[in-house]
């Protein structure tokens, strides 16, 4: 059996660790890329859900979301209704 001094730790396993200063931030990956604009549906939901919860505080978020989705079908904000 070999003594402890002769046993070497395995070398070169996996990818070497990256220096944290070299990591790219999401903004650096796509320099100059703008933010994605929200769809009319998402804009409508963002305003409609709080309105529904204000009218009926006992509504769960899920129920308010369902009502808002139904309201979208007849909303003037819906491009299909214009």
UniProtKB/TrEMBL annotation:
Record-linked InterPro entries: HMG_box_dom_sf, YABBY, YABBY_C
Task: Extract the SUPFAM superfamilies matched here.
Answer: HMG-box
**Keyword Zinc assigned:** yes
User: Where does the record place Basic and acidic residues bias?
Assistant: 8-25
Q: Name one GO molecular function term.
A: zinc ion binding
**Residue stretches of biased makeup (Low complexity):** 28-40
Protein keywords: Metal-binding, Zinc, Zinc-finger
YABBY protein C-terminal domain residues: 36-75
Cite a GO CC annotation. Answer: nucleus
- GO term, biological process aspect, one: cell fate commitment
Using the UniProt annotation, give all residue ranges assigned to the region (Disordered): 1-40
Q: Which family does it belong to?
A: Belongs to the YABBY family.
Task: Tell me what this protein is called.
Answer: YABBY protein C-terminal domain-containing protein
Q: Which organism is it from?
A: Clydaea vesicula
